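Hi! If you just cloned this repository, the fastest way to understand the data is to look at a raw example. We've pasted two of them here, unedited. The first protein comes first, obviously.
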Amino acid sequence: MTNCVNKLLEALDENINLAPDRWSEEHIIQAGNKKWISNILPAELLKRTVKQAVESLVTINESGEFYKNFPDNIETPNYGDRWGRSANYIEINNRAIAEMFGDRTRNGILSSIKILPAIPPSAKSWANCIILSQIFPNIYGDGYNKGVSEENSIYGIKLNAGYSGNIIDYDINLSGEEQFCAFNNLAHIHGLKTGFRTVISADQIKIAYPDKDDVTFDWNNPEHQELFINEHVNLIKTGFEAIFIDSAKHIGGYDMGNYTGVGALPGYEQMQYILYEIRARSGVTSISFAGEKSTGDFARYENLGLTTGTAFIPPDNYDKVKCWSEKLKYNKNYAPGVEVSNDNDEGGRSYEDRLNRINSSLFGYEYPSDKLPSFMQMEDLFPLRYDTNTHHLMMTNPSYSTDGTPESHWENLFTKDDGRAYNAKVGELFAHAMNL
């Protein structure tokens, strides 16, 4: 694609000439040549313009060179094809931080761009990877927020319907793919990998048609399978390099007694084929496939084509994390990950416990080359207000605005002074890990 960042700026009626961002320079945390924004509240970034976010990312990029115009060619951080085996995956609920005007929700990709400067960039020895919670339209209420107790789940999606009205800015003359391309280029210049969450439970997926009613997805329908593959390939071509697969543990009918999704799942060999085809058709050999709870039977998931999975290693126990790092250090294709928190997190964990889990994730090994992957949520960097939690925001889409403006929603979605202090402590942990 052409320079998607400049195209985005122009679509937003902004000049493409960039200037150093003084605000960012005053809020930098630095470790070697790695820089990001710390000791902040998310609203401070979300209230800024997209152009200010671009200028921030150019100002703090690790090359130290300031670009007066955004470069035409930005490469993804290069950690080899197996980068996902050791990465830290940080899921950002891009719907929750979207712009909420009254009952409308929109422009989550622009908010995701604005929050990028506050995400720690990748370290010397491993990558940090942002996972976006929503890409496709959700089945019910897409583009709208509802009351705090009204269901509006991200886990029910539509394919063949473009991208979510919660996420894409449909008021500007720029395609959804180009908006994702701009996000990915900006993440890359900041030293981050990127990916997105997907759903594989058949009854949680609808196929949209322009001339007839939506139909429920069917894994036995070759046309549906083909559509699933191509939708994901198209996204990879915009610059994403990771896909987090919900309910991946149960692919092929495995351990169905603990399955909490709705509907049939793909067969084991079928999913092998799907993952192979996504890699082959996109031409991206470095894709990392991360599976929800796809751990325990390591060979099963490695042979499936997965890179990592969640919820196997006890995250509160540094010594056990280090022990598993030692056991698994020779397998560079697949390893289970350390989970700070997941999308089912219902809150209540103390800041100290979260910091301890992040510490285990970043330092639980003998040598940096043996580091295990890890999984974090937005709340692990930016604490949410006390009466909500990660899972609640996946299942519902409330606005916390007191006056109908997005600025008020952003201010009230997160905690205040204690959240700022916690964010500073998270920054210190990442800073210690940067040059390992």
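Ok, and the second one:
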Amino acid sequence: MVDNKVILPSKYVFPLLTAKNFRESNYPAEKWVLLPYATTGKPLEKNQLKSEPELWDYLLTHQEDLTSRKGSLIGAWFKKGYWWALLGVGAYNFMPYKIVW
């Protein structure tokens, strides 16, 4: 359950690092990011998304907003049919440890 409103598969929902995480140790996540990606850093295929009904329905609900994004990099994903793709996502997002500064 995300924001006490939306049910999404937990394997695609990750805590988002915020400034509060640097000010307080063990600060619980307040913001989350949905990454409809394989751990390889590649967007899930449409058939994989459809096999997760809550995830697919959520993405369809936001399809218009997602497809209205501008830019050549995101446009390249759209041309390949991945309108749910995000920029800056790769295999490193799924590593067990991260270095931030």
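That's it. A detail worth noticing about the second one: The helical segments are 20-23, 46-50, 53-61, 63-67, 72-79.
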